[in-house]
Amino acid sequence: MKSSRKLSNDEVEFFLSSFDNKSNEQTEHSSAHFYEMSDNSLLVAYVKGTNQAARVLVDRLMPKIRSHAYYRLGNIDDAEDVTQETFLKLWKIAPSWKKDNAKVSTWLYRVVINLCHDKHRRKTLYSLDTVSDIVNNSHSSIDKLADKSRQIALYSAMSELPARQRLAVQLRHIDELKNTEIAEIMDLSVEAVESLIARGKRKLIEILEIHKSELGYRYE
What we know:
Oligomer: single chain
Order of helices and strands: HHHHHHHHHHHH
Number of domains: 2
C-alpha cells in the first residue's frame, strides 16, 4: 500500500487560506448562522460554494480527530498526517454527500480509525509533554487525568486490551462519544458496544490494580 506524502507547511497554509477568500461583509453577516448549523448542513453548504462552512467544520471537528489519532499512534507527526489525510478525503467525497447521509463526524471517525490501523505503529510510551498541544480545545478525558504517571499507566493498560474493546473504551471515555455514536462508527448494536465497554473497563481495572497504591486509584 502506498504511503501518503506528507503535505508541506506551504501546502497546508494554502489549503486553509482558501477558506478565507471571502468578503468581510459576508463573514460578519453569516458567521453566527454557520456556527448554529449541523455538521452535515455545513458540508452541503461547502459543496455549494460557501467556504466559510468548511472553516467552521474544521474548527469544530479537527481537534477531536487529531486527538483520536494522537492517542492511537502516539506520535505527533503521524497524528497530523492522518488528520490531514482524513479531511482531504472528506473534501474529495463532499460533492457526492447528501444532507441525510450518516453524520459527518461518524464518517470522519471511521476514516481516521482505518488510517491509524494502516500505520501499523503504536508506541507503548508516549511523549506526554506534548499532549496539551494535540488535544488543544477538545474535551478529551486525557486532560482530566491527574498526572503523567496515571497517563502512562492508562496508555499501557489500554494497549493490552483486545482491539475492539480498546477502540470502544477510547471512543467512550477518551473521545467522550455517546454509545449510540460509537455503535454507528463501529457498525454494531448499542448493546454490543455496551458489552465491549464493560468488558474493557473490567480488564483495565485488573491491569491497573497492580499500580493502585502508587497511582492513588481506589476501586470498590
